[in-house]
Amino acid sequence: MSTMLKPVVPIVRTLMSGTKVGVVVSAGKMSKAVKVRIAGQEWNKKIRKAFPSSKTYLVADPNSSLNEGDVVRIASGWRTSKQIRHVVTSIVAPFGPPVEERPPVLTEEERMKIRIRERLEKDVRSAARGRTTSKLRIKEARKQGLEIPDLESAMRNTKLMEAEDAARLESGGSKNKAPIGHRQTNKEKKKEEREKAGAARKAEAKKQVILQSAT
Questions:
Q1: Contact (Cβ atoms closer than 8 angstroms) between residue 34 and residue 26
Q2: Distance between alpha carbon 91 and the CA centroid of its chain, in Å?
Q3: Which residue stretches belong to region Disordered (predicted)?
Q4: What is the pLDDT of residue 8?
Q5: Domain-ending residue, one of 77, 102, 127
Q6: Closest Cα partner for 71 from 21, 16, 110?
Q7: Residue 173: is its pLDDT beyond 80?
Q8: C-alpha dihedral over 110, 116, 117, 123, to 10 degrees?
Q9: What is the DSSP string of 84-110?
Q10: Which residue, 60, 77, 102, sits at the end of a domain?
Q11: Is the pLDDT reported for residue 181 higher than 60?
Q12: Going by DSSP bridges, is the β-strand pair 71-76/49-60 parallel, antiparallel, or unpaired?
């Protein structure tokens, strides 16, 4: 009687992804992230003609390999934050220094190793607080022969983040920043216009008072 093999339970999910080619329009301003513009077309129903239309994405650059002006290939399905859901997979045409002089772009296997390590570090911290799901995932990782970090190394990144937050508070900075790519609503725009108009009226009235007192 043949025995059926149990499927290997993945430690992290692998999402479906598609690839796009675009140009890096902003690099070096965010930690391990760049902005990539993807060219496209938009169909105008009235004129019945396609016009150029582009979209800009925040893309993860784990190794800080990209420069502004690079033509790159990106893949979706790699969420690292609320705004970042794409990751760079290769440099199609470099701009500036050659690819050999830059940190290499991580392969999919290297990215998955980093993601699994971060997932297990998080599970170790959660398991220390008694979370059952994390304990089961650590048990499955041991069966697969993966290296399980100890609690001290798992707390390392957390301590670094706490130190950065403390330094930011001491320097007068704020932890809560406005989300990247925030656009003003119509209400905010109208409020801003009213404030500008009111300031202009006050300045004009003050000017008239000064002119009258001078005469």
A1: yes
A2: 19
A3: 162-215
A4: 66
A5: 102
A6: 21
A7: no
A8: 170
A9: --EEEEEEEE--SS-GGGSPPPPPHHH
A10: 102
A11: no
A12: unpaired
Identify whether the C-beta of residue 94 lies closer than 8 Å to the C-beta of residue 67: yes
Q: What is the DSSP string of 35-78?
A: EEEEEEEEEETTTTEEEEEEEEEEEE-TT----TT-EEEEEES-
Q: What angle is formed at CA 40 by the lines to CA 37 and CA 44, rounded to 5 degrees?
A: 135
Q: What is the pLDDT of residue 172?
A: 57
Read off the pLDDT of residues 11-70 as tens digits, 9 standing for 90 and up. 877 776 799 999 999 998 988 999 999 999 999 999 999 999 999 999 999 999 999 999
C-alpha atoms less than 13 angstroms from C-alpha of 6 in its C-beta half-sphere: 6
Q: Is the pLDDT of residue 73 over 70?
A: yes
Q: Residues with Cβ < 8 Å from 96, sequence gap 6 or more?
A: 67, 69, 70
Q: Please report where in the chains the tokens 């301003």 appear, as a residue.
A: 29
Range of the domain at 92: 19-102
CA distances from 40 to 20, 51, 55, 76, 183 (A): 11, 9, 8, 17, 22
Q: b/e string for 63-76 if b means 16 or more Cβ within 10 A? A: eebbbeebebebbb
- Give the predicted TM-score (pTM) of the model: 0.64
Asked if 56 and 122 sit in the same domain, the reply is no
Report the number of secondary-structure helices (H) and strands (E) in the chain: 5, 5
Q: Are 37 and 69 found together in one domain? A: yes
Mean pLDDT of the chain: 83
